[in-house]
Structure formats: C-alpha cells, structure tokens
Amino acid sequence: MTDKYKEAGVDIDAGIRAVELMKAAVRSTFTPQVLADVGSFGGLFALTDLPPQPVLVASTDGVGTKVKLAAELGRWKGIGHDLVNHCINDILVQNARPLFFLDYIAAARLEPEAVAAAVTGVAEACKAAGCALIGGETAEMPGVYTENAFDMAGTVIGLVDRDALLPQLAEMTVNDAIIGLPSSGPHTNGYSLIRQAIAGRDLEMVLEDGQTLAGALLAPHRCYLSAIDILQQSGFTVKGMAHITGGGIIENLPRILPGHLSARVVTKSWETPPVFRRLVAWSGMNFMEAFRVLNMGIGMVLIVDTAAAEPILDLLPEAIVIGRLVERKNGEAIQLIA
Amino acid sequence: MTDKYKEAGVDIDAGIRAVELMKAAVRSTFTPQVLADVGSFGGLFALTDLPPQPVLVASTDGVGTKVKLAAELGRWKGIGHDLVNHCINDILVQNARPLFFLDYIAAARLEPEAVAAAVTGVAEACKAAGCALIGGETAEMPGVYTENAFDMAGTVIGLVDRDALLPQLAEMTVNDAIIGLPSSGPHTNGYSLIRQAIAGRDLEMVLEDGQTLAGALLAPHRCYLSAIDILQQSGFTVKGMAHITGGGIIENLPRILPGHLSARVVTKSWETPPVFRRLVAWSGMNFMEAFRVLNMGIGMVLIVDTAAAEPILDLLPEAIVIGRLVERKNGEAIQLIA
Q: Which end of chain B is more exposed for a tag (fewer CB within 10 A), N or C?
C-alpha cells in the first residue's frame, strides 16, 4: 500500500497515523468473545451464554447514495455510523441483539484518511452497541466507481432465542398502540431523490431547528437498540417493531401486521422536522409519496398493548403515540390520516 | 421496481421471469436451519448440533475488478460463484465449515436479468457447498458506479470447534510437506493488472490448453471445501492451509507459519497454466512480481506431515507436493526456487 501512495504523492505519514487510529478504534470494539486480532484471517467469535434455542439473525445492507453526499462534503465518519446503525435496527425488529459486524468499502481510489475515518465511524457505532467489529474488506476498483465516489456495505450478525422472535402476530389486537420513535433525519433513505431536490441550493443554509441543511442531511442514522433495551428491561412487551427504511412507513409498517389488522396512523401526532418539510416542498412530492420515500421524522415504530402506551411514554420521553391498530377493511394494511 | 423499468423501456416480463428463477435458486439453498423465507426481514438461522466450543468464523470480501471484465462480457453468473467460493476458502483455512451467506450487489442501474444471473450464481455456489443464502441487498446507486459497471460483495459465516481451529503452529516441523491444490485460473486476484495486460488483445484467442482467453480469465474461483472434506474424513491431519489470494503465495503462505520455519517452494513442481504464462509475458512482470500478483496455478496450499504426503496424492489426484518446511534463516519466511 505504502509504495502506491508514495508514487501518487500522498502524505504517507498522515495516512499511516490515520490507519493506526482506525486499528485502535477497531480493537476497542472487541468483546471477550473475539478470538482473533485485526489483520488475521476470518474474524473469530466464540459463542458463549447461548439461549435455549439460539437463532442467528443476519442482515447485509448499504447506505444508498448518502455516500455520494458524504463524499462531496468529505464527511466520512458519520457514514460509518449510518451503516452500523441501519443494520442493527434491521435485526432489532426481530428482537435480535448484535454480536458482531463486518464492513466492505470500495472506491476507484481509496484515500487512506477517508477510509480510516469511515472505518473509525463504523467502530464507534459498533462499540456503542456492544457489537464487535471482527472483519472487513477495502477494495480499490478503478473503472467500477466514479471519481471521488465510494460505497460501503456492512453485515451484522445477531442472536435471539427462537421463542423471543418478533413480530408476534398472534398477540396483536384491535386498539394496540402504535408508538413512533423519532428519526435523526432522513437516515439512509431517499438520497437519490434528496440529491436532486437540493441541487443548486446552499447546503449551509440554516433550518428552523438551527441545523444547517448539510448537517440535517448527514445526521447519522439513529440506533434504537438502547431504547428497546430500556423498554424490555423495564418489563414491557413489544409485540412488533418496524424499521422505517426504504418504502417509508407505508411499506414497512404493514410488513409486521397480521392479515386481519390495519395500522391507522395520524401523521399530525408528531411534528414533521424542518428538513422533511423542505425536501417535500422542493421536490414537489405529494403526501403519499413523501411517506413512501422518506421516514418523515419517525425512524422506528413499535406495536404495544394499549395499556402500556402511557407508561412507555413516561419511560422514553421521545416516544409518541402515532396511531392504533384497527380491523382491516378493503384490504388496506395502513391508513395514513393527514 | 416494475414501474421504473417500464419507463425505461425494459422487458419487464423477461425481468420478472429472471427474478422468479433467481428466487427459486435462492430457496434451493435453504437448509432445515433456515427459519425465514426470501423477502422477510433479516435472515434467520437456527444453531443446532453445535460442537462443544463453538466458534463462528466470518469473512467479507468482494471479487475485485474481475467484475469489470464480467460486465464487459455480460457473464454475470460466474461472478456469483467467484464471490461465494472466495469467501468459503477464506474461512476454510481456519477449518470452518460454511453455515450461511449474504450478498450485496450495487450498480448505477441494475438490470434485473443481470442481477438475477449473478444471484443465481451465488445460489448455485452456496448450494454446492451446503451453505444457505439467507440474505442480501441490491442497490441502485446513480453517480457512484460508472456506466455498465457493478460491484458485488459477500459475507460468509462458518462454524468450527475451538480445538479444531487452524493453523496449528505448534504441530509444524522441519520437512513437513507443502501441498498445492490447482487453481482454475487467476480466481479473483490481479484483475486490475490483468485488464491492462489484455487491453487490445483478442479475448477469443485460443490458449494452449484449448480454453479461450476470456474463458480462462472468467473461470470461476475454485472452492476447496470438498477436497479438504475428503482429506479430513479419510483421517488425514492438515496442520495449516493458506488460500492464495491477493499477495500471491509469497504473502499468503508465510501467514500460517511459525516464526522458526520457512516455506521452501519449488515452482517447477507444477506446470504453470498457459493463461499465467501469457499474462506474465504481456505485462512484463518479473518472477517475484508474478508470484505476488497472481496465484500462478496454485489456489490453496496445505501443510501436512511428510509421511502423509504420498497417501494424500493418491486420494486427491490433482494435489502436488510443491515444497517443504525448512528451518528459517535470515528471517525469510518463504523461498521461491525457480
């Protein structure tokens, strides 16, 4: 690696320092179950303290064209958080807890400092979730990626007992509360449309909530692991969870409902954050398109018993009751009330 | 998805048929341990029949710029085999057996038939290895990938008992045999250089072994799982294995050796396949460069007791003794004898 960068006139010492910091960040994620150190072969993870019916839950995902915006602004670290948190949320909805993570980063030409920043972001997010970063690959692919663009993908492996798997469709009934947990921004969805909507606009403009447009658009994807841990450790039963990703609440919430129930969601229950209002206005999306392309301020949805709703709001001040389950009529799995 | 392709004038019916075939191929990989069907959330894999000290071994990798050549020639399926077999070999060297796999495919614009062919290749290779394909992601990333290029990455999760982990450094001694297993071609390494070396040449030219140049360069990465299964099930002890990937035998074989031993490899032990001789001649690489950039015909290397070498050659007719372990002098971990 060193020779190649020397030829290209890159500051090798800065690159080496960045890589050392990255390696330290990766090592800081290691739990006692990790058997191999950075740079060995495949990552080794000892399975201990298994539940009676252990089930591994695995998910691979990328962060979409948010990487393009991050590359343009040179903000790599947040993308690492996006990648990890998106993947963890994806398995959290099945009630799995993350064990370990692996990442893949590729570009036409890898800048060592950019890679180190991105991987450090991955490591930080893993560490925050108690998830070991046990492997990864970086690839230089001239001719495959456009100049200054890169892509990242990640894989999380989590664990759950078979009896604890969610959703528990048989437990859901009419009047169950639909609780929303706020997103931190568009997370990792809708960025091809977002990039069109912001073309030619000032990314440093300040929005009504005091964030810059760039800051609002690059805010890392929120991880909902700690919120769900708090709920469950306090004895609350979550019957189902939907991670609001591509397809929005319109496509993701119906995926966790039984055929006889429908989600009645009142969108005025929460205040749509300024960045979403701007994006909708600039792009000319209609109401339904907006809730299909963007999360519109709600990143995770929980189904709980109606009696549990109030105490859950006490426990999680950010949580909002956004609707309830009703009998399904006309085959509609979700009704959005403006 | 359908609307988008309709607008672009794509043959939707052909695309749908391709996707249905792909889904059938994916389902055909499912073992009884797979709990979820295609299209659900994260893939679910029940852990059963665990060894006393179960260790998960995980590896993420891509296939390098071989994807560029495959895209140019429209041969997608083989790349799926490359991806899976590369990853399985990577964990096989630690003596792990694959449980399941997840893939990631991204391009500026995804052609449904190309994606279906690539994923079908992934599924075929998984099925051949008894490995379930339980998840994956396809992403359209305009502006990130160049036109007509795509990238694929994959993650394999395997299992091994802690006591069976390889390499077993303490067991290796002077005179242990180094056995090579043939590669099927350059596998997935050296393709940026290979693409330069073949620029302007006729890809349909026929090589001395009857293969076309294109055929030799796109031959899927070999999976060594069945060969190692045969050896171990016949009672042979493998002390260490090295998968000859990026860095060649020069960088990969030393990774599995104890500090006091060196690998003495006689490169005339095997016949270098025609495609490698051509690539070396066209690119002007010297001897050492060739064995660092390319596998030169040997894709997997095993360290075994010297007494086991002959019976192993009887069991695996393709296997070749390519050298032996010697006392390490001058700090050299590998000596290549021309």
A: C
Is the Cβ pair B62, A137 closer than 8 Å? yes
The values of phi and psi at residue B290, to 5°, are -60, -40
Residues of chain B in contact with residue A102, where contact means CB-CB under 8 angstroms, are: 58-60, 155
Which of B40-49, B219-228, B289-298 has the lowest average pLDDT?
B40-49
What pLDDT, on the 0 to 100 scale, is given for residue B40? 63
Do the chains contact at A102 and B155, CB–CB below 8 Å? yes
Omega before B167 within 30 of 0, i.e. cis: yes
Residue that is written with structure tokens 């192993």 in the block: B312
SS3 A77: helix
The DSSP bridge partners found for residue B101 are B133, B156
Distance in Å from the first CA to the final CA of chain A: 55
Helix/strand/coil (H/E/C) assignment for every residue in A206-269: ECCCCCEHHHHHHCCCCCCHHHHHHHHHCCCCEEEEEECCCCHHHHHHHHHCCCCEEEEEEHHH
Which residue ranges does chain B devote to CATH 3.30.1330.10? 4-164
CB–CB of B106 and A151 under 8 A?
yes
pLDDT above 70 for A11: no
| Inter-residue contact B135 to A58 (CB < 8 Å) | yes
How high is the pLDDT of residue A5? 46
pLDDT confidence of residue B1: 39
Residue A125 has phi, psi (to 5 degrees) of -70, -35
Bridge pairing between strands A97-107 and A132-140: parallel
Contact A315, A234 (CB under 8 A): yes
Tens digit of each residue's pLDDT (9 = 90 or more) over B32-88: 999 976 556 779 999 999 999 999 999 999 998 899 899 889 899 999 999 999 999
Residue A137 dihedral angles phi and psi, to the nearest 5°: -145, 140
Indicate the SS3 state at residue A177.
Answer: strand
- B186–chain A Cβ distance below 8 A for any pair: no
Query: Is residue A93 less than 8 Å (CB to CB) from chain B?
Result: yes
Q: What CATH fold (topology level) applies to the domain A169-337?
A: Phosphoribosyl-aminoimidazole Synthetase; Chain A, domain 2 (3.90.650)
Note whether ipTM > 0.95 here: no
To the nearest whole Å, the CA of A51 is away from the closest chain B CA by: 10
The residue among A243, A338, A259 whose CA lies nearest residue A295 is A243
Binary contact (A42, B57; C-beta < 8 A) = yes
- Tell me the sheet residues that pair with A137: A104
DSSP assignment of A81-141, as one string?
HHHHHHHHHHHHTTT-EEEEEEEEEEESS--HHHHHHHHHHHHHHHHHTT-EEEEEEEEE-
Q: Is the pLDDT of residue B7 over 90?
A: no
Alpha-carbon distances, residue A105 vs A67, A110, A163, B293 (angstroms) = 11, 9, 36, 21
Class for the domain spanning A4-164: alpha beta
- For residue B53, the SS3 value is coil
